Amino acid sequence: MNEPDKNKVSQIKETSIPGVLIIESPVRTDLRGFFHEVFRKSELDEKIGSGFNTVQWSHSMSMPGVIRAIHTEGWNKLIYPVTGILYAPIVDLRPESATFGKVEYITIDNTREDSKRQALFLPKGGIGNSICVLGTEPLHYMYLVDEYWDDTKAKGVAWDDPDLNIKWPVENPILSERDKNNPTLRQLFPEKFSK
Fold it and tell me: Any idea which residues carry the catalytic annotation?
């Protein structure tokens, strides 16, 4: 029987979409508050099989009722919600994938004292990232990427695509102009629907 590695800090859990990972690390609390190590590069590298060499750290804030969706980019991304409730339908948009078109629903609630303080890892190459704000608090989240922002590598799919049929928990969401006009899966991948 293998003994647990005493040096490991995180539990890295796979989701139903290959490459999309949930990272859970212990939250150490005392009278002052808490300490949380969000991730260790060595542990993530062990899981994904290649280096996640971050070059950019970004902070985004979204108000309740906002949907940012569905975005796919040309880089690996590690998302950490700091405040608020993150509702994240994640979509496999890799046409060669056995799970193409699958939606994985991930909710991270960091409004509670007993929150697990999870992080979400999204691999490059066709994973659609969505952010929806639940509750009444703004959602602040930080994310690390391993390539600098390049608008030409950022693509989108319609947030209300009928083939994805995502169950959004808000009516009349606040959307960017870009997100209002993203193409559907059928427009982007007609060959996947011609059978």
Answer: 71, 143
